[in-house]
Design brief:
Blueprint (H helix, E strand, L loop, with lengths): L14 E5 L2 H4 L40 H15 L3 E5 L2 H4 L10 H16 L3 E5 L7 H7 L6 H17 L5 E3 L11 H5 L10 H25 L4 E8 L2 E3 L4 H23 L4 H9 L8 H9 L4 E6 L3 E3 L8 E2 L6 E2 L15 H15 L3 E5 L9 E3 L2 E3 L3 H20 L3 E7 L19 E3 L11 E3 L1 H11 L8
Parallel strand pairs: 1-2, 1-14, 2-3, 3-4, 4-5, 5-7, 6-8, 7-11, 11-14
Antiparallel strand pairs: 9-10, 12-13, 15-16
């Protein structure tokens, strides 16, 4: 008799929580000795060209003021029952210019206080070392990751983090959505050369520098924090053939491989043949040293983490290329799916497909570190208490978590799940606060007005129950 049940069960010790990024929540953009980052000259996200200098309309200068309110926010995370909180360290808080020889103690002390608060509430930190926050000086002086010199600056930064926090943090991610550098070279890679002037060789050389730096970070972690687990982080977006035409099927495979290559290199320690062929066909010759090859091969990751928001289609027929929107990546619209207010197609089954595909391909533990719905929330009063009745968010997360449970039942080894923007934050793609993801509403608007008061949404209690029951409430 089979022991397979109809209701997926999340494993004991599964890590439930939420995720944010420093530049989208902290504010205090020049406090505590912090230097400018590339985000400080991106007042409109990736949607319009960057500014020459910080501007007063950049919501990220204050964001949601996590820098001053972290204790209050972490207490709310604990109230929901978080077992893990993913956050990033702002590189320019630690090395304001990025190329200094000594770190900024005020910046280090701030993250000590954040870790103290997490420990007080029994929440595990999951730290992203670089989350779209390259110091602006490194972009302007060195052209960001297009320069091999950034590997040395990143190494100094990483050694500082592991020396200071290595005994306190178990889970680390080297770069956020590392594959996004192909689509957003300034935001993802701090590459100052305008995208339309950037050669393919320089772009892929920057990719190589980041991959080598990621492997070097893994090596350093094993020296300085041997109990730590080091993961890569990729943006996942399953690609479906628009039709059963074999050419469409192969086109979907080819597009999918532009993302899969990054995981392949992190997990297997070498460039896959299909990736090398693609470089050759684009006329790209990379400068790869024997030391680079050794670092990649000998320092593969312990787990693979990823974001998931939507899927796309692919076709070779130019007349059928109805382009939709996605998280940095556009793609052919799937006619069978509905979309969010920002045009991102909603595909819960795609998350199960991604989990199975990654597990089958890499046989490494997985971690979903971003998933969520950006929506326009309305603050209302229910029984005299301000809240947001966000049934649409609950339905989105419910549908996706049901598919996560199915993937676990399929045999996928999954460490945990952190929803993106567990508290409202400034959107990376649009730099809006009105594009809200959180379980916690923050009273701040796109024009900068608002009290910054925090309010629990309806989804707050829903997620707390999911966590309390370790996912059992999803099947009720």
């Amino acid at each position: 008799m089979s022991d397979i049940t109809a209701s997926p069960v999340f494993p004991e010790g599964f890590l439930w929580g939420g995720a944010t990024a420093a530049n989208q929540v902290e504010g205090a953009y020049i406090e505590g000795g912090k230097g400018l980052s590339i985000q400080d000259v991106m007042p409109n996200g990736i949607l319009t060209p960057r500014a020459d200098a910080p501007t007063d309309d950049n919501l990220k200068q204050v964001a949601i003021d996590f820098y001053h309110r972290y204790a209050e926010d972490i207490a709310l995370f604990a109230e929901m029952g978080f077992g893990v909180y993913r956050f990033s360290i702002a590189w320019s808080r630690i090395f304001p210019q990025g190329d200094e020889s000594e770190p900024n103690e005020e910046g280090l002390a701030f993250y000590d206080r954040v870790l103290d608060e997490l420990e007080r509430h029994g929440i595990q930190p999951l730290v992203t070392i670089s989350h779209y926050e390259t110091p602006l000086h490194l972009a302007e002086q060195y052209d960001g990751w297009a320069s091999r010199e950034l590997i040395g600056f990143y190494e100094r930064y990483v050694r500082t983090l592991f020396t200071r926090y290595g005994a306190r943090v178990k889970y680390w991610l080297t770069f956020n959505e590392i594959n996004s550098v192909l689509h957003a070279p300034f935001m993802s890679g701090g590459i100052n050369t305008p995208k339309d002037q950037l050669s393919r060789t320089d772009l892929y050389q920057a990719v190589h520098h980041e991959l080598v730096a990621s492997a070097l970070a893994t090596k350093i972690a094993r020296e300085l924090a041997p109990d730590a687990q080091i993961g890569c982080m990729v943006l996942s977006m399953p690609v479906y053939p628009l039709t059963p035409d074999p050419d469409d099927v192969f086109a979907a495979l080819t597009t999918d491989r532009t993302n899969l290559a990054f995981g392949d290199i992190h997990v297997r320690g070498e460039y896959p043949g299909y990736y090398l062929r693609s470089l050759r066909e684009q006329g790209v010759e990379l400068a790869i040293t024997d030391e680079d090859r050794g670092l990649l091969k000998e320092n593969t990751v312990d787990f693979v983490s990823f974001s998931y928001y939507s899927s796309i289609c692919e076709t070779v027929d130019p007349d059928k290329r109805d382009m939709g929107e996605g998280n940095l990546f556009g793609g052919v619209r799937n006619p069978t799916l509905k979309a969010s207010e920002w045009g991102w197609q909603i595909d819960p089954v795609g998350l199960r497909l991604a989990l199975n595909s990654f597990w089958d391909r890499w046989q490494k533990p997985l971690f979903i570190v971003e998933n969520g719905l950006g929506a326009k929330d309305e603050l209302v009063e229910v029984d005299g208490v301000p809240t947001v009745v966000d049934d649409y968010r609950i339905a989105y997360l419910q549908a996706h978590l049901e598919q996560v449970g199915e993937a676990i039942a399929d045999g996928v080894d999954l460490l945990g799940y952190t929803t993106w923007g567990c508290i409202d934050l400034v959107s990376a793609s649009t730099a809006q606060l009105s594009k809200r993801y959180g379980f916690i509403y923050v009273d701040r608007n796109d024009d900068g007005s608002g009290s910054l008061t925090r309010y629990r949404k309806k989804s707050f209690d829903w997620y707390a129950e999911v966590i309390r029951t370790n996912g059992a409430s999803l099947t009720r």
